Amino acid sequence: MSRQIEKVKKYTNGSLPDSVAPYAMSNEDLGLVRVAAWSAKSVYASDAAHIGHVTQLEDVSDYQPTQHMENIDASFRDGTVKASRVQMFCTHTESSSRLLVVAIRGSTSKRRDWTINFDDIGRGTEGEGFVDSEDRKYQVHGGFLECAKAMVEKVSEAILSVLSKTETESSDRGIQLLFTGHSAGGAVASLLYAHMMSKNFSTLVDLNSKFTSISCIVFGSPPVSNPALHSENSTFISIINEGDPVPRIDKDYIESLLMVYLCPEPTVALHWDLPQMLLDNAGTVLFMKDGNQGFGAVANDVEQRKTKRVLETTIFGNPRAHKMDMYLWKLKMVNGNF
Fold first, then answer.
1. What does the record give as the reaction this protein catalyses (predicted)?
2. Total-model pTM
3. Which residue in 11, 167, 174, 287 has its CB near the most CB atoms, within 10 A?
4. Contacts of 217 (CB under 8 A, 6+ apart)
5. Is 31 inside a domain boundary?
6. How does residue 121 score in pLDDT terms, banded at 50, 70 and 90?
7. Torsion angle of alpha carbons 72, 235, 145, 310, nearest 10°?
């Protein structure tokens, strides 16, 4: 794989272009990103030892995890319901605030967990009654949509359960809600967030008024819908590590990337033509560029059109870049090597 990764870099479009410039994130959003990343990693396993190399959250964030949580088990037979964790986080400053995080687990090595990933891959299913609005209709990845629909009741019940455990704890600033997830978990988290922010009907939408704000931050999430899910009134971010192929993945892209791997290494500078994206990434796309600290974005990008062009013309061919550990490492949230 190291040889294939080096081969990708030989192409003129084998790395992110200069149009992806440093992006100044607010301290508030950066705090949410760190909590989201920690939660997206911790949901992969119930035992603390699994994330022993991850920096303690209190070392990088004002928020600290509490014992108030509910776990949702993955469905055994077909993977329609992904394992998830709903957990309360609190600050211990003078202006104490609470953050409820819904973290959806990404795909594991278990076959059932990959079932939804390749269900209707790259094609859309009507989003009517779930994410559609009066003025905008969506085509949504069928597998992720089926999963999100199946999880609405379970996530609603888990949220209410955690809220009931903390209702006696006073807070003048109310409670914020954050959806997060890595890989396919990020795709499902994006759909649940978009559904909760919509004017459709469900037990999850009914909980909207219980929170002072609702946000979504996902990592390495694959394309979800057409047009892209977005929000004008809250934080909705999709973080993509340079080289991570999953945020670009669909059937045509897989075939093109395999051809890059199979073809001889170019001896002169060449451009590799890539297929157009069939579905779009959710939220505002921010890149984690190799060799750069912080985040990158395309400046003055109306409706992310230039960002989509970057995604469509750049080879994302480093599967190692997809690991949640790599996202944590670039966020400086790991201890030593992993």
1. a monoacylglycerol + H2O = glycerol + a fatty acid + H(+); a diacylglycerol + H2O = a monoacylglycerol + a fatty acid + H(+)
2. 0.93
3. 287
4. 32, 33, 36, 178, 179, 180, 235, 236, 237, 239
5. yes
6. very low
7. -130
